[in-house]
């Protein structure tokens, strides 16, 4: 029998063997099983008996190949039951040859859904296996993978009837029209011209964003609307994102590919494990992986534990999270756009700095929780000022909606993708700094004079220099220019440092 085991988001085909020998009745499972898999012996026995099948009172050895691959979870139950009945001579297994069988068994013989069906079926397809049997509640999700014939079962008895008598298995449901959910729209934001421009540049280039300002100024409103101006995910990205949410058990019931960029906003009490992933045995994906290809928003960022914030530094650079555990390592993708929002001080007077009651030391300590190395990785850093009464009360029919901004973002991304196609990149934020400093991409000295002066004075790091150049390319793409000029670099400096240059 064939099944699939997951290590992170990577699936591996597993062969399930069963040997029945004379001796004291017992069930032994080998092949690096975890606790949930060890308990399969009791689940499978009860399911077999309660499905009207005869349980063999012999010494039963279940082996999962390859034996060196750690096996986790309950998705092996159905394959183990079929292999055991085949080994006992109760079930001819020829109809299940080169068929991947997945599912958890209940004590009454029902087949229950499992997490991670999508990456499991994708792994089977990569291995050249084009037939799978899955729990009925996972059928819609499994059917997303092209080129694979998916059939579903709701009970062990149905699978036995199919093998013995040829009774047809269940077909996956026919997907209906996708539900269109109206999300937050950028037209709802009053004023905040700088914030809107920063959001547009962030979306167009794939940059990170930090919003600093008093409460009520609109930081959260801006951050929540970033996904609405991002393009929909292409097929490869949608498959990656959907697989991660499948492992976490967060897919909607219709099992469709997730086309909208995900948005994760963990509470400021979140632990390191909840942000980057963790857990005993198989480490689960954290918020930074669940936001892969989308937005990770940390509201009240200065209130997060320092260790949790610092744990994000490496994923922001590499786009991946490697979680090492005693039983092996797990790697999850984590290419996100990070958005930080923070008040300028502990008292956070809505009226701004003029009414602040905090001492200079208290202000420095508060924002000091956002370390220099972390902020150095944030491309766009702006101050969001309080909204004026005239801006709040004015009915501005000309306020741009998310759809209008999204069209400009899509055009800018298309221009960047065409330009960087020769180096295998698509977003300005992903371009290596050394490449931007080489011909033909190096900007003229007259356009970068201000930027080079800041680098020489020590007010800007080499990483910051490269990030401003990337921002300048994004600004030029949004404004329809083939190359950045002096004004583009000046705007990029302002977006990075908050200075008006």
Quickly list its features:
501 residues, elongated, 21 helices, Rossmann fold, 4-stranded mixed β-sheet, Ribosomal Protein S5, domain 2, 5-stranded parallel β-sheet
Describe the structure.
The chain is α/β, with parallel strands linked by helices. It folds into 2 domains: 2-165, Ribosomal Protein S5, domain 2 (2-Layer Sandwich), CATH 3.30.230; 186-392, Rossmann fold (3-Layer(aba) Sandwich). It has 21 helices and 18 strands. The protein has a 5-stranded parallel beta sheet with strand order 11-14-17-10-18. β6 and β7 (111-112) form a beta hairpin. α20 (462-478) crosses α21. The N and C termini lie far apart (68 Å). The model has no long low-confidence stretch (mean pLDDT 90). This is Magnesium chelatase family protein. It comes from Micromonospora mirobrigensis. Belongs to the Mg-chelatase subunits D/I family. ComM subfamily. One of its GO terms (molecular function) is ATP binding.
